[in-house]
C-alpha cells in the first residue's frame, strides 16, 4: 500500500503541463518575418495609461495573448467618491484605442475589477493655541 502511494506521488509531479501562454504578441507579419512585442511592454503601457487618471490610486494588470489579439485584466483601487461605472467605461474605451494605435494589436477584451476605494490621505494641520 505504501509502495503504491509512493509511486503515485512520484508520477504526480511529472504530469504534463499545458502549453504555456506566449510571453509576446504578434504585432505584424510580413514576408520577411514577424514583429512581436513582449507582454511586459504592453503591461507597462496599460499601467502608465491607468495611473494618469487622478481617481485611480493603485493598478494591477494581467495580460493574455491569443491568436486574435490580447485580453487585458485590470484591478483598480480608486478614491471613495468615484463614479465607478463612468470611470471603468471611459478607461476601457481609451485604453483599447491607446493600445491598438500604439501597437496595432487587437484588444479583444478589457475587464475591470474595482477592488477597493482607498481613502484620501488625511492632511492634518497643527493648530497652536496660545492662552
Radius of gyration: 23 Å
Give the tally of β-strands.
Answer: 5
Q: Please work out how many helical segments DSSP would assign.
A: 3
Q: Give me the secondary-structure category.
A: alpha+beta
**Which second-level CATH architecture of the domain at 38-118 applies?**
2-Layer Sandwich
Your description of this structure?
This protein is an alpha+beta fold. It has a domain at 38-118: Alpha-Beta Plaits, CATH 3.30.70. 34% of the residues lie in helices and 34% in strands. The chain has helices at residues 2-12, 39-51, 84-103; strands at 24-30, 33-38, 56-66, 69-78, 107-117. It has a three-stranded mixed sheet, covered by helices on one side. A two-stranded antiparallel sheet has the order 1-2. α3 (84-103) links the parallel β4 and β5 (107-117). α2 (39-51) packs across α3. The longest helix has 20 residues, at 84-103. The protein is flat, with a radius of gyration of 23 Å. The model is unreliable at 122-131 (pLDDT under 50).
Amino acid at each position: 500500500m505504501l509502495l503504491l502511494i509512493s509511486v503515485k506521488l512520484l508520477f504526480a509531479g511529472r504530469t504534463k503541463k499545458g502549453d504555456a501562454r506566449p510571453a509576446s504578441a504578434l504585432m505584424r507579419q510580413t514576408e520577411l518575418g514577424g514583429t512581436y512585442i513582449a507582454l511586459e511592454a504592453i503591461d507597462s503601457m496599460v499601467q502608465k495609461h491607468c495611473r494618469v487618471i487622478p481617481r485611480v490610486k493603485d493598478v494591477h494588470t494581467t495580460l493574455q495573448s491569443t491568436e486574435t489579439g490580447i485580453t487585458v485584466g485590470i484591478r483598480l483601487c480608486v478614491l471613495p467618491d468615484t463614479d465607478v461605472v463612468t470611470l471603468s467605461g471611459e478607461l476601457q474605451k481609451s485604453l483599447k484605442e491607446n493600445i491598438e494605435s500604439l501597437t496595432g494589436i487587437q484588444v479583444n477584451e478589457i475587464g475591470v475589477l474595482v477592488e477597493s476605494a482607498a481613502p484620501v490621505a488625511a492632511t492634518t494641520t497643527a493648530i497652536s493655541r496660545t492662552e
